[in-house]
Structure formats: C-alpha cells, structure tokens
Amino acid sequence: MGLFILRRLGVMILTAICLTFIVFFLTNLAPNLEKLAKSEVNQRMSDDAVTSWLANRGYTQPLPVKYGQWLGVLPGYVIEGTDGTVRGRCIDQGMAPEDAPTFCGILQGDWGQSSVFKDDVGSIISTRLGLTGKLMFWVMMVMVPGALIIGVLAGMREGSRTDRSLSTVSILSTATPEYVSGVIFIAVFSSSAVGLKWFKGTATSAMDDITFANFTLPVLTIALYGMGYIARMTRASMTEVMTAQYIRTARLKGVSFGNIVLKHALRNALIAPFTVIMLQFPWLLNGVVIVETLFNYKGFGWTLVQAAGNNDIELLLGVSVVSVVVVLTTQLISDIGYVYLNPRISVT
Amino acid sequence: MEPLSWGEILIRIIGQFTPVWIALIVLFAASIVYKRKLGLYGKLFDSTIGMIGFALVMFWVFTAVFGAMGMIITHDGLQQFASMKNKVPGTFLDEEGVYNYYLLGGDNLGRDVFTRMVKGSWEVVKIAPFATLFAFMVGITLGLPAGYYGGKLDTFLSFLANLILAFPVILLFYLLVTPEIVATGIPVYMAGVLFIFPIVFMVILMNSRFYTQPAKRNMYLAFVLVIGAWLYLGIAWNADPLGIISFPANLLVVFVSVVFVNSPTVFRIVRGLAMDIKTRDYVAAAQTRGEGPWYIMLWEILPNARGPLIVDFCLRIGYTTILLGTLGFFGLGLSPESPDWGSTINEGRKLLSIYLHPALPPAFALLTLVLGLNLLADGLREESLRD
C-alpha cells in the first residue's frame, strides 16, 4: 500500500509539472505577452516599447529558464533594464537588489505577483479558496445526502413507480447544465417579473455573511447538476446489490424489508458512489466557475475567469496548480478509499 | 395593436413549426411500420423513454435543418428594430414586409428571440455530432491498441489522457480559445494532428480487412486517401485545392478544443472495453487463425464493443452541446453576433431580474435537446441489454 501511494504521488507530481508547463507555455506565447505589456502600460504602445518592457522584466528569457525560475529551481533573473533600473524576480518593491534571495519560486513559497489584482498571488488564492470552500461545503451537504437518498430509494425496488419517477428526475438534473438551471432559478425565484422574490439573484453579499436568501440558489445550482449523476450510480449499484444471493437469504429468513435495505444492502451499495463522489470534484470545479460568474460570488472560479481573461500569468499558474492538485488528490483518495471499502480489490 | 395573448402565441409558434411536425410524423410512422427490419434503431421504438428522447432530438435536428433553410424563422435574427428592445412576447411589429409579431419578444438589441433560438439549434447541430464523431475516431484509434497491447504504450497513452482530464475544462478553453492563441496558429496545428486520426482509422480499417485481396484493398485505400486528404486539407489547413471546402477560423478553434476535451474520456472507455473483450474466446480463436493485431482490434473487438459505445456517443453529443453552451456563456470563440444558445443565455442573464424572455427560450431549448439525448441513450441502453 505504501509503495502504491508513493508511486501515485510520483505520477501526481509529474502530471502537475507537465500541466503547469503547458499553462506556462500557452500564457508566455508572444501575442499573450504583448497583450500583457499593453494592458499594463497602455494600448497604443509602440512595438519597440513592448520589446524593451518585456526584456526589462525578464519575459524574453528562454522558456525553460523562465519556468525554472517560477518553479524555484533556477536563480531568479536580475536584469539592469534599458531605463537603468535594476529589476529582479526576487527583488520586491523597495528592496535593495543585494538583499534579495537568489531563488524565489513556488518551491520557496513565493507564488509571484498578480498583474490584475496588484497583490500577492498566494494571498489572493488563499482568500478566494476560502470563499469557494464555504460554497463547496454547502454544495456537498446538499448534494451527497440528496443524491444517495434518491439513488437508494430508486434502486430499492427496481422497476417500481418510485424508481421510474426518481430516475426521470435524475436524468433531468444531469441534462441541465449550471448556466441553464442557474438562469431558470434566478428567473423563477428572484426576478421581479415573476414576483416570488424568495432568494437573491446574486451572492455577492454572501462573501461576508452567508444567509439563506443569498446562498440557496448558487448552492442548489451546483448541487443539482452533480446530484443526478451520483444518484444514477447509486441506483445502479443498489439494484445490483438487491439481486445478490445474501439479500435473498435475508428475505427468506424473514428479515423485514426496511432492515434489509438499511443493514444489509446499504453498506455494499455505497462503495461505487463513494468513488463517483470523489471523481465529481473536477466537474464541481467547472460548476463553481460558472456559478461564481453567474451569481457574482468572487471566489476561486471567479478568480480563474479574471486571471484567464486578462492573461495574468502568475495568478493563472497559481490557479492551475491548485486545481490540478485538487483533482489529482481526489483521484488518489478515491482509489485508496475504494480499496479500503471493497475487500475484493487489491492494489498489489 | 395589443400584444398577442399567450394562447395565440402558442398557436402561432406551433404553426411556425409545421414542417418539423410533418417531418416527425413521417419519420415516426415509417420507423414504427418497419421497426422489425431496422435492428437496434427499430428496437428503440419498443421503449417509451427511447421514443420520447428520439422525438426530442429529432425535433431539434429538423428545426435546425429547416431553420437553416429559412423555413421556420420569422425574421433574420440579426435585424434590429429599436422599437422592439426588450419587448414582451407577442408584441406587434409595425413594419412593412416582415412578420408582424415577435413571438417570443425582443432581446436587448431589438432582435427576435424566437428566430435566434431556432438559428441557435443549427449552431449546435452543425458542430456537436461531428466533433463527437472526431473525438470517437481519436479515442478509438488510440484506445484499442492501449487496451489490446497494454504495457508501456498503455502507460504512456493513459498518462497523456489523465493529463488532459486533470485540466479544468474552462481553464483549457480560456487558454485555447482566445484571439491571441488563434494568432499563433496553435489550434491549426492541433487540428492538423487531431484530424489525421479519422484518416488513419479508415486506412487501417480497410487494410486489415482486405490485405489478402490487394486489388480490392488498393481501390478502397485510394478512395479513402483521396477523399480523406481532400477533406483534411480543406478543414484543418483551409487549403482545399478545389476551393470547395473551407472552415471559418473561429469555428475551427471551437471544434478542435471540443474534440480535444472529449477524446481522453472516449480513450478511457475504449481502452477499458478492449481490455475486457480481449480475454474472450473469439479473440483467442482469431489469434489462433493467425489474424493480425489490427484485424482483431478493429474487426473482432470493436464490433463487440458497439453497444456501450453507441450509448456513450449519444450521451457525449449531449455533453458536447453543454460544452458549446459553456463556450458561448463565457463569450469564447464564437462571434458576438452568433445566435448560439450559450451566447444568448449569457446576453439574456444580464437583464434577468427585469426581463425573463430573452434568456429562457435558449435555456429551455438546450435543456430539452440534452434531455432528449440522455433519454435516447437510456432507451438504447435498455434495448441493447435486452438481448
């Protein structure tokens, strides 16, 4: 088991390096750098000015060198610019060039500066991630129990009317992407045209103070899309368990139906959904981006859109590191958890 | 003039869809009469869920095709009337020579919402099935050998697939579908790589089957290569020597990124199926007969994996539709004038608290199409498991 985890961690690090390199490559393409320079200084910059602006800030170094500096395995650049100022990757504002450390990449815990928010990437990501964490927590609280209950109820008696109607509901919810359900929810529950006005159509105020009115719609919107899928998996696994021999034995022994479902079937039926729930995280991340944009909740997903839209290289890299780590960690947890829950599977 | 009442609007909309109703009735009547002779497609008409799904899907397919031919639409979808800005459904339009009502109202620029919804279906129907098909070609061509041979090849290809899958889709879209990236030509190179897979697939398919009959094989191969190379040059490099096929650059980016996002999942499914099926007796029999590995993969394993693949194909078209909507929602790739559902939802949501009608029709349209595809997949799964 230890070896398995070690190997998976190795693959994880390799994947993270490859992915960040791809993001690094794409954000450092010449047209993107030109756009960055123009948005930082002004739109009508001459080509020469762009070149020297980029050269002064180390953007014209070879790509692997820049990547190494960002990672913190190569010493940060120190360049005496054409305008006479000495700039360096590790030299912060108001710091003497001699005092600056040699290495400053993410390995040293320095995530760089965001060009959009004019702030430290590390602190931006941690605050935004905290906000998204709250959202995700409530999504999980709604989605997981909801999906499991629907799945178990539907799979308990295959082919019954409950099964048919609940299965249709779960198909409907998987067919409704967040931007559709979000728009419908806002239209029905918060617009002045319908007049229900139960909830708020934006979640901006939820960043300071979460209330029932401002947080229900975003949470429901994300939860709904994932719910159907998990419910269908639970249903499939439940119907399979319900036809197993040991359930029949229990029935013949005279155990009541409720007891069979709760004590005999449930434990085995929940192995498959566990994996599915863990693997839903990458999809939830997608949902978070859409919903945070739709409801104007300035969390991690919103930051991703801002960073990507403005080619904020360092912030975008930070965002991708975090999301890749989230995705890969959940995959690892789902694999390990599966082995623990299901004694028939072995990693060796 | 008073705006139309909801009943009148409904009757007029149903009237506008007349060609679609006729086509649907003809299709269903013919299919139900001949369903015993139509294999899996015919069996679909034994399942209520499958039939509902199929009806929803075909409704939008017919709407898209007839709409593109100029039949269902009431206006041209781009023409703006200042007097119709944000007007409610059924508003009278006092202009000469055009349809006199905005059946589903006007959007914030005074364009007809109904027409834009119908035109949006064409945007989906012309991209989603083909993008999914291409993703399947890529996934099958790589997944079969990975599952069949296993070993280092499998490790390498699976690593690549997981690499792409670990990317948040939206980040990938933001990185690929921007004007700056298009300017570097990267999407074209990606198209150059991705679009060669269908040709490779067809060539191997023909060669492994007919290599014992060189005359027949050469004829088939020449045919595949000429047509394939022609389409490839036209679509990927926009260099069709005959000048018939051309592909707008911004559409190509959307197409490529959707194929790119979908193919790793297809790869994983095909790989799993191939690993399962290669242990069967008929594969061992083919190996004993001395058949080549590609023959076994493409003519023994692939036909036996068709059930799950067809089901996944339907689901994946739905997923591709959702992805296209996501692209539109973030304003990526497609032109701002484009009537696709994602863009119209995005435009409509800005005024959602006051005006509902611009955002809801495209939202329901997308919902019903994806729902139809999911129900269709469910029906197919049920029917293919039955025998």
Distance between the termini of chain A: 8 Å
The global form of chain A is: elongated
Whole-number radius of gyration of chain A?
26 Å
The amount of helix of chain B comes to over 70%
Largest interface comes to: A-B, 52 and 46 residues
User: How far is it from the N-terminal to the C-terminal residue of chain B, by CA?
Assistant: 60 Å
**Unreliable parts of chain B:** none
Provide the low-confidence segments of chain A as ranges.
Answer: none
Q: How much of the polypeptide of chain A forms β-strand, as a percent range? A: under 5%
Give, in order, the helices and strands of chain A. HHHHEEHHHHHHHHHH
Largest sheet of chain A, described in full? 2 strands, antiparallel
Overall body shape of chain B = globular
Instruction: Bin the helical content of chain A.
Output: 55-70%
Notes on the structure:
The complex is a heterodimer of chains A (348) and B (387). Chain A has helices at residues 2-27, 30-40, 47-56, 63-71, 121-156, 161-174, 178-189, 212-242, 245-253, 257-269, 271-279, 281-294, 300-309, 313-341, and strands at 78-80, 86-88. Chain A is an all-alpha fold. A two-stranded antiparallel sheet of chain A has the order 1-2. In chain A, helix 1 (2-27) packs antiparallel against helix 14. Chain A is elongated and about 90 Å long. Chain A starts with a helix and ends in a 7-residue tail after the last helix. The model of chain A has no long low-confidence stretch (mean pLDDT 85). Chain B is mainly alpha-helical. Chain B is 71% helix and 1% strand. Chain B is built from 17 helices and two strands. A two-stranded antiparallel ribbon of chain B has the order 1-2. In chain B, strand 1 and strand 2 (101-102) form a beta hairpin. Chain B is globular, with a radius of gyration of 24 Å. Chain B starts with 5 loop residues before the first helix and ends with a helix. The model of chain B has no long low-confidence stretch (mean pLDDT 88). Classes of the chains: A mainly alpha (348), B mainly alpha (387). At the A-B interface, helix 1, helix 2, helix 6, helix 7 and helix 12 of A face helix 6, helix 7, helix 8, helix 15 and helix 16 of B.
